[in-house]
Amino acid sequence: MTVSTSPASTPSTLTLPTPVSAVTRGLVGLVLFAVGVLVWQQACLELVKAPREFSLHLLGQTLTLRHGRQILSDGLLTLLVVAPSVMWLEFALVGWRNSSLRRILITRSPSVQLDIACLAAGQMQILRVVGAVLTFGLATWIGRWASNTLGGGVLAWTGVAHAPYWAQIGLFFFVYSFFDYWAHRLDHSPMFWPLHRFHHSAEEFCAITSMRAHPAEFTSIFLINLPMAALGAGVDVMISVNLLVTVLGLLIHSNIDSDWGWVGRWVVQSPRGHRLHHIKDISKPVGCYAMVPLWDHLFGTWVEDPPGRVEIGVDTPYVHGYFLFADLLRDYCDLWRASFQEVAAYFRSAPRIGL
Ligand SMILES: [Zn+2]
Ligand SMILES: [Zn+2]
Predict the structure, then answer these.
(1) Are 201 and 330 part of one and the same domain?
(2) Is 138 found in the same domain as 60?
(3) Given a cut of 60, is residue 13 above it in pLDDT?
(4) Of 62, 127, 181, 258, which one has the fewest beta carbons inside 10 Å?
(5) What per-residue confidence (pLDDT) applies to 129?
(6) Checking DSSP bridges between strand 257-258 and strand 3-4, what pairing results, if any?
(7) Which residue, 28, 62, 95, sits at the end of a domain?
(8) How far is the CA of 314 from the centre of ligand 1 (A)?
(9) Ligand in nearest proximity to the CA of 196
(10) In which band, very low, low, confident or very high, does the pLDDT at 12 lie, cut at 50, 70 and 90?
């Protein structure tokens, strides 16, 4: 297992920390990270039990927030606890100069500005609304239908619901990663690539790059949400799986330059593995699609990590910056253009019936 800071981005004048201070920072970072994640999970579980509406009494006025628990569990806690915890861990391991915190607070390249804009728009539920509009409400409707009609069927049949809580989390994460793998493969097809390209357009990794996703990316609805709803995991189990996925997403987009040894090779994707997936040079087949690399090995998409750091990004020029809608709209138009081209190509190649 290798963990190292990037030599390319370390100036010759930088004084490297002594091994003891690096280990201490790493341990303190790990402890705070674990505490942060546990607080987040506990808060999410408490919010599930909370009433559907929150009433705030301010200056004699009563403000009622509907769906408050979802907004809080999806947004504020990610923003206030999970993302800072991961970024603290990254800072402890790679130092200030290579950290996401420095990229967000100090340097803020146009690429990172887009990451920040996506995080903010996502937490404020703006992207959810934009996604509903761009998918003509399909995403919202299917999600609601799936949870109302499919929930619980397979679980009731298999009896998995009676398994220990942690076993259920492990099982559902494993199942989730299978569907996520195939949704991700579909995202890289010519038709859906323009939407997923938005995520790949990041020119540098920052932990919150995981939040950069086109709101109209609806492949996951059919290939992840529907099967997961059919399996019918309990709300608390799904919250924990969601936590795991969120934390993993932040970690693999961090600047922790590690392959995680055999764990990163078989069990959970590492930051180096995901960086390889984001490679700009696509002259060779892209690989490392899965959160659980076992799927890459099974379906022939595992690629070996070359030495050194690979350049990430896409050839398509992006505006980037805080105003994310220019890039979002261009990629959405490209989706429809690519779809029409695919359909036209299909009919051109289809055998004609002579009359
Ligand atoms: Zn991808
Ligand atoms: Zn990514």
Answers:
(1) yes
(2) no
(3) no
(4) 62
(5) 84
(6) antiparallel
(7) 95
(8) 11
(9) 1
(10) very low
Please work out, in degrees rounded to the nearest 5, the angle formed at the alpha carbon of residue 21 by the alpha carbons of 19 and 27.
100
Is the CB of residue 172 less than 8 Å from the CB of residue 237?
Answer: yes
71-99 pLDDT per residue, tens: 555 666 777 778 888 998 999 899 999 99
Looking at the fold, whether 79 and 214 belong to one and the same domain comes out as no
Measure the CA–CA gap between 344 and 277, rounded to whole angstroms: 30
180-192 confidence digits (pLDDT tens): 999 999 999 988 9
Query: Distance, CA 289 to ligand 1 centroid (Å)?
Result: 6
- 274 CA → ligand 2 middle, Å: 6
Find the length of the chain: 355
Q: Which ligand is nearest to the CA of 180?
A: 1
Closest among 283, 328, 168, 150 to 226, alpha carbons compared: 150
Q: Looking at beta carbons, which pairs linking 6-9 to residues 24 or more positions away fall under 8 Å?
A: 6/98, 6/255, 6/257, 6/309, 8/309, 9/97, 9/98
Condensed to tens digits (0 to 9), the pLDDT of residues 198-253 reads 999 999 999 999 999 999 987 777 777 677 777 766 777 777 888 889 899 999 99
> How many angstroms separate the alpha carbon of residue 125 from the centre of ligand 2?
21
- Whether 100 maps to a domain, the answer reads no
User: How many whole angstroms separate alpha carbon 105 and alpha carbon 71?
Assistant: 25
Say how far apart CA 44 and CA 42 lie, in whole Å.
5
Domain, as residue range, for 44: 18-95
Is 1 inside any structural domain? no
pTM of structure: 0.78
Task: Domain count for the chain, please give it.
Answer: 2
**Ligand of minimum distance to the alpha carbon of 249:** 2
pLDDT in tens, 26-67: 677 677 777 776 766 666 666 555 554 545 444 444 444 445
